[in-house]
Amino acid sequence: MSDNFPADKDWEEAEYRARVIGELPAQLTQGNVDWAMRQLNVSRSTLFRLVKQFREDGRTSALLRDTRGPKPGMQPLDPAVEVIVTHHFRAFYATRRKPTRTRFWREIAADCQAQGLAPPSIRRLGRWLEGHDQEKLMARREGKDKAERRHLATPGGLTADSPLDIVQIDHTKADVTVVDPVTRRPLGRPTLTVAIDVNTRMVLGFHLSLEPPSLLAVALCLTHAVMDKSHWLAARGISTDWAAQGIPSAIYVDNGAEFHARAFELACSEYQIDLQYRPPGTPRYGGHIERLIGTMMGAVHLLPGSHFSNIFERGDLDAEAEAVMTLDELETWLALEITGSYHARVHSALETTPAAAWAARTNEVRIQIPADLRQFLVDFLPSEQRVLQRDGLHLFHIRYWADELRWLMGRESRKFTLKYDPRDLSRIFVLTENGIIEARPADLTRPAVTLWEHRAARRALREAGRRSVDEELIFRTIEAQRDLVDCAERQTKAIRRHQARRAHLAPLPMIDVTPDAAVRDALPAPEGEESPFLSHPGFKVEEWYDDD
């Protein structure tokens, strides 16, 4: 994506370009070219340039207009023209006749010319149409039943024609307590984030965390879902196959705050993912994912440390006293349960296994994989916008710098989008027109800290009466708090969770999304000594919420 969130009008145009170009076949005919030129209102050479850019990159932002020069704003329609457009929309376009957008435009253009008015372009008309309630528009053009199946899905009515057409994502509190890998003392129940393909019932990916649902959990789950998981399985000693991968066409989610984050919505648009939210009062909307979660939790009840759904099933069982599995061990167990059991059992709705359904049906569709898996993950991470100052970028009271930023100086009023991993603030990702710049604290002596530690330090300073804080004070406070935790003779669960939050700050890979060492080594390495933030061991603990 660009270095800043693009203006809505520019992003809408890029989305429209992506939809048009996405409909073109691999081998273009003269008819295809003429149609696309009319839809986009571009020359032949410009069309071929856009097609090449989009097919090589695969992201919507590849179709943004060049931001180096001035760009005209999207002006409202002339009032007289809007009267004509509104009339033909109600009487012609929003009817069961279902005319094409081009026919709609022709009717408008004829009336505009008859009245001596300049008609809007097809692209401008498309933007006007996108401002309407799409569910209501579909109901008027194609009937209420079809509109409800598309926009108000239920387990019985939600259908997907092909793999990756519809993917559902949801979170749940796992019905099992995990323990610290060193002390083997209980840490609590982790949160499971999981994605399912509706067409084949294949589990596309999952993520385990000791924290409540967050945008980071969704980012890691989606990255796991779209990637080739062969190396991920091998790293955990799992020999079963997990063929599911690829970017979904549509994602169905509930109304959690993490799914409404601007960063998530823009990232979905970046990869042409149709994001659909559960309408209020429709508990059956996420039926497929809820049934999957129920199946997974049923299997988890067989594990020591399991919590049951009610007190009658639980009896006098002490789940924490029985707990023996670490978060890593539970992750591996779930992967085995998914690949070796769930994917291999005949599904009643499919009359075959999810693995067999995926193998048979993916032969008929094109699976799209991100050109850059690392970029994909970064695009879905939480973000903030900051102005590049002469001494660097300031985020969470930490000053960040990279030598590459030197070439972007002199644009004081320009805001940059900063992506960050809440588990480790020793690196941020600066999005620019030419790619990602990795910036680290200007003071390289700063230790790697989590956002959770950072917030805890700020809270402690406020409670101590400090109205203003600075970078030095925050890091001194974090070090003092770590010393207190490390020296505690009697460990509480909260302290053990605090230590678990810091466990990934050891010098291990940040997020393992590369299939082999050769690819990983090809990524630009930071200067200086080996950083503990270089990588994370893949889909582990995200730690940035406070304990209640």
Overview of the molecule:
There is one protein chain. 40% of the residues lie in helices and 13% in strands. The chain has helices at 8-22, 30-40, 44-57, 79-93, 101-114, 122-130, 134-142, 144-151, 215-226, 230-235, 262-270, 287-300, 311-314, 319-322, 327-340, 354-361, 373-380, 451-463, 471-487, 493-503, 517-522, and strands at residues 167-173, 178-179, 186-188, 191-197, 203-209, 250-253, 274-277, 383-387, 393-395, 398-401, 415-421, 424-432, 435-441. It has 4 domains: 8-63, no CATH class; 79-151, Arc Repressor Mutant, subunit A (Orthogonal Bundle); 167-373, Nucleotidyltransferase, domain 5 (2-Layer Sandwich), CATH 3.30.420; 384-522, no CATH class. The strands form 3 sheets. The chain has a 6-stranded antiparallel β-sheet with strand order 8-11-12-13-10-9, covered by helices on one side. A 5-stranded mixed β-sheet has the order 5-4-1-6-7. The protein has a two-stranded antiparallel sheet with strand order 2-3. Mean pLDDT is 76; it is low at 67-74, 152-157, 309-316, 507-511 and 513-548. A hairpin with a 2-residue loop joins strand 12 and strand 13 (435-441). It is globular. With 548 residues, it is of the alpha+beta class. The longest helix is centred in the last third of the chain and has 17 residues, at 471-487.
Q: What's the CATH H-level superfamily name of the largest domain?
A: Ribonuclease H-like superfamily/Ribonuclease H
* Major beta sheet summary: 6 strands, antiparallel
Quick one: overall form?
Answer: globular
The count of strands amounts to 13
Number of separate helices:
21
